[in-house]
Amino acid sequence: MATPARFYRTPHEFTMAFMANVAKTSATAVTGQQKGRHRHRPGKPYAGVSGDELAGKVFANMRSVARMIATVSDPNRPHTDWTVRQFVAQTVHLIHRGIKNAKRMKALRTHQTARGYGCSAERVPELWEEFIRDLQMKMKLDEDDPQELCAWVEYQVRFKIHPLADGSGRLATALAAWIMFRAGRAIPNYSFLQRSEMHAKLREGEVAFREYYLRVCFSEGGPKELTPTGTNPPDEAAA
């Protein structure tokens, strides 16, 4: 594969774009609120610290993920099986580094999710392994359009499988950024995402979500129908 031009002039420029995406899509990184805190689901682990403390750690950890992406994204590096697996494993480790109860939070999910997210807990190991194999092959063959691959990854990780006990959304954000960064292109722009609309599109299915994701996250300047004045609309719902 030919070496693509770098889209970001410096690692700091990439990190700023990446952290803007984290702030837009991860309530945990902003408020420290974990889903289901007030409606406890059997088997779901919680951090056991204040919201402010958790948010600070999560935000700092995601900065470490950004630095890792910038470091390992050599476009001439062959993406063998272990390389993809190593990226996923290291990302999961960094997402939860230094957080109380991290061992349980970064494990594969064993509880049922709310709002229809994720497969049954019993199927998580099987579907997650299938996803890893498929992603390894797609990145090794390098035949898929990177934007299309991001949409597929986001749907699989954020919604269809939702593999981790905590942090699946952050993992999806990191994987999408890695795919685009190593291709020498701009990472998805989540500025125009409305979380309530994103959740609705995820529930509609992969085709509806793919169309929404590509239109909103990769349209230059953002989708005109969502931003007629060219301004960034306020978020409508907390995740």
Overview of this protein structure:
- It is a single chain.
- The protein contains ten helices and no strands.
- With 239 residues, the chain is mostly helical.
- It has a single domain, classed as Orthogonal Bundle (Fic-like fold).
- Helix 7 crosses helix 10.
- The C terminus is likely disordered.
In brief:
This protein has about 240 residues and is mostly helical.
Query: So what's the overall shape?
Result: globular
Q: What is the CA-atom radius of gyration, in angstroms? A: 17 Å
* Separate helix tally: 10
CATH topology: Fic-like fold
How much of the sequence lies in strands comes to under 5%
CATH homologous superfamily placement: Fido-like domain
CATH class: Mainly Alpha
User: What's the number of extended β-strand segments?
Assistant: 0
Biggest β-sheet: count, sense, barrel? none
Mean pLDDT: 83
- The domain tally reads 1
Q: What CATH architecture do you see?
A: Orthogonal Bundle
- Poorly predicted tracts of residues: 222-239
> By helix and strand content, what is the structural category?
mainly alpha
Report how far the terminal alpha carbons are from each other.
38 Å
Write the layout of secondary structure elements.
Elements: H1 11-25, H2 27-31, H3 51-72, H4 81-95, H5 102-105, H6 124-141, H7 146-160, H8 168-182, H9 195-204, H10 206-218
Helix pairs in contact: 1-3, 1-8, 3-8, 4-6, 4-8, 7-8, 7-10, 9-10
Which features characterize this protein?
239 residues; mainly alpha; Fic-like fold; disordered C terminus
